[in-house]
Amino acid sequence: MKKIALSPKEETPKRWGRWILDEENLSLFTYYDNDKKRYCLPLVLCNNPKATLGWITSIHEKEWTTNLDIGDVVEALNDLLNLRSYFDRNGNEHENGNIIYTKDVVQKRIRLSKIKIINKGG
Q1: Closest residue by Cα to residue 85 from 108, 117, 57
Q2: What is the pTM (predicted TM-score) of this model?
Q3: What separation in angstroms does the CA of 62 have from each of 53, 65, 70, 98?
Q4: pLDDT in tens, 34-80
Q5: Sheet holding 37-42, edge to edge
Q6: Total number of domains in the chain
Q7: Cα separation of 20 and 106, whole Å?
Q8: Nearest Cα to 45, choosing from 58, 63, 36, 35?
Q9: Which ranges constitute the DSSP H helices of 1-122?
Q10: Cβ-contact 20, 28 below 8 angstroms
Q11: What is the signed CA dihedral for 83, 70, 40, 11, rounded to 10 degrees?
Q12: Digit-coded pLDDT (tens) for 77-96
């Protein structure tokens, strides 16, 4: 496992394994099928536990995903949405579980957070 050092200008990681942050569209994406196709996960739609789990399950069901991909996307969602504070321990959403709130959380964490991630892909 290799730690990624962040540059002073880059406060938030841009990549979790094969998952890449698209700051402009507030989404995560990855390429598959020898980089010919792109899969996108819009972060603003991960605004409640059911929707977030639905996206994770959908990704898991893809033929091209690995267990590492699933772990990486969960790590990315946690880094960007701070899932533990976003949802309670039982998976219930907090009062602010809506798209506008989710967008605000992601944008703030992109701007302000100094998250270090582990690049499990090497």
Answers
A1: 108
A2: 0.68
A3: 15, 6, 10, 27
A4: 888 899 999 988 887 788 889 999 999 999 999 999 999 999 998 88
A5: 15-16, 19-22, 27-32, 37-42
A6: 1
A7: 14
A8: 58
A9: 49-60, 67-81, 83-86, 99-112
A10: yes
A11: 50
A12: 988 887 776 666 665 665 55
Dihedral, 9, 14, 15, 19 alpha carbons, nearest 10:
-170
Give me the torsion for CA of 68, 71, 77, 83, rounded to 10°: 180
Residue at 58: amino acid letter: S
- Structure confidence at residue 14 (pLDDT): 85
Contact status, residue 9 vs residue 23, Cβ threshold 8 Å: no
- Can you give the residue range of the structural domain that contains 58? 2-119
- For 77, the token pair is 């969602």
Amino acid at 33: D
Q: Are 94 and 86 within 8 A, CB to CB?
A: yes
Identify the CA nearest to 117 among candidates 41, 27, 19.
Answer: 19
Neighbouring residues of 102: CB distance < 8 A, sequence distance ≥ 6: 43, 44, 46, 47, 81
Q: Which amino acid is at 90?
A: N
